[in-house]
Amino acid sequence: MAAELVEAKNMVMSFRVSDLQMLLGFVGRSKSGLKHELVTRALQLVQFDCSPEVFKKIKELYETRYAKKSSEAAQPQPHRSPEALPIHSSYDRGSAVARTSISTPNIDYPTLYGKYLNGLGRLPPKAVKPEVRLVKLPFYTTLDELLKPTELVPQNNEKLQESPCIFALTPRQVELIRNSRELQPGVKSVQVVLRICYTDTSSPQEDQYPPNIAVKVNHSYCSVPGYYPSNKPGVEPKRPCRPINLTHLMYLSAATNRITVTWGNYGKSYSVGLYLVRQMTSAELLQRLKTIGIKHPELCKALVKEKLRLDPDSEIATTGVRVSLICPLVKMRLSVPCRAETCAHLQCFDAVFYLQMNEKKPTWMCPVCDKPAPYDQLIIDGLLSKILTECEDADEIEYLVDGSWCPIRAEKERSCSPQCPILVLGSSDVNGLLPTPNGNGENGKAAADVVDLTLDSSSSEEEEEEDEEEDDDDEGPQPKRRCSYEKGLVSAC
Q1: Do 426 and 392 fall into the same domain?
Q2: If residue 146 lies in a helix (H) or strand (E), which one and from where to where?
Q3: Which of residues 251, 280, 309 is at a domain's end?
Q4: Which residues are within 8 A (CB) of 246 and not within 5 positions of it... i.e. 6 or more apart?
Q5: What digits encode the pLDDT tens for the residues 413-462?
Q6: Within this chain, do residues 318 and 197 fall inside the same structural domain, yes or no?
Q7: Mean pLDDT across the stretch 237-257?
Q8: Is residue 242 a contact partner of residue 207, using CB atoms and an 8 Å limit?
Q9: How many domains in the chain?
Q10: How far apart are CA 410 and CA 393, in angstroms?
């Protein structure tokens, strides 16, 4: 059936105006309009309503036109056979169309849902060429593929090249755009976007702009993201390569849209694709993550045990691991703790701020280990979420080997309320011994001299010198003290 569909489209592409009018009249469609409009209607008919009767009529009209092949051999007339028509290199039943080169003079650009781009070679016989694939973007949900990634082919030796593309939106696609909500004034959530990447079929490609890129939609140029300024000396500014929104410049009707990509030809090969997408917000991605991305607390507890399990090859036994309840991104308490499943650490970051950050400047790098943390690998830590609700007076916890946890209080809180006994400084006896625990001397008299902390160091030193002079006069020279404390009370612990 696929071969018959290709054959029918090739036949329709070779029809004259009279042939197209006869075919459209046969099925009760409008016969008025220019040739490219007739071609569009006929190809839509083949694409969506190609019954055996319609295919038989197309074949009949084609054979009628080329019935006199023997006479044409004697007096050849130039015409394009179906085999000579270039075919889209990534043909499939849903979007395959014939394509012509833009460099050919006097070309009628047919405006069907498949889209013509410049200078692509015809499909090799019985050969399947690998397709260029683009990476999935979390903030864009693809609704339709308007143009498969197609290589930009230079038409001459000039450094600046132009590649036009003509296509039309279906009534359903127009309705989706019109009825979509507005993200902000003038920006619809359902959009037609242009994506550009390197022509590399080995793996899904990230968006990458060619040099000197400019995009013209119908009669107006579309804005392309510029460069990020660099604050570091000697570092070149970076350009964010994102899908380019074309919706506000397109005709939201049955009219054809012409897109022209201007690009610099400097040796690297690029491919472009057109997509109908729905743009998502960080709040929507967060809600989706809360719905499908929560990891059960028991699974998280088992992960903690696995992390702290004794390694027989290790000489150091790990008895616990500390995890901060403060987000490393914004230095605030975690609200939705998450991390990537590929990360080896237990430390989490806040999903709310992480998604907001990547909505503005997508990097998808873990702020803890600086490794890739894409959206489809994020999980919400159910165990840490539970801990956050139960432990509101601590900023750090410690996981133990059995999977349990305990809060870790701040050091300053512990120092404000000492629990240890206080060592009181006092004068020594004749033999240089320390006072007895009850603070009394041999005669039961108080022998301890408490240091007044309200005095400054200079006054304290003067008083100590005076006391030493008096002691020298009364008792003679004293033995040296084992330790000297100038000021303050010393904790015994």
Answers
A1: no
A2: strand 140-151
A3: 280
A4: 191, 192, 193, 194, 215, 217, 222, 259
A5: 444 445 555 555 554 444 444 444 444 444 444 444 555 555 554 444 55
A6: no
A7: 89
A8: yes
A9: 4
A10: 10
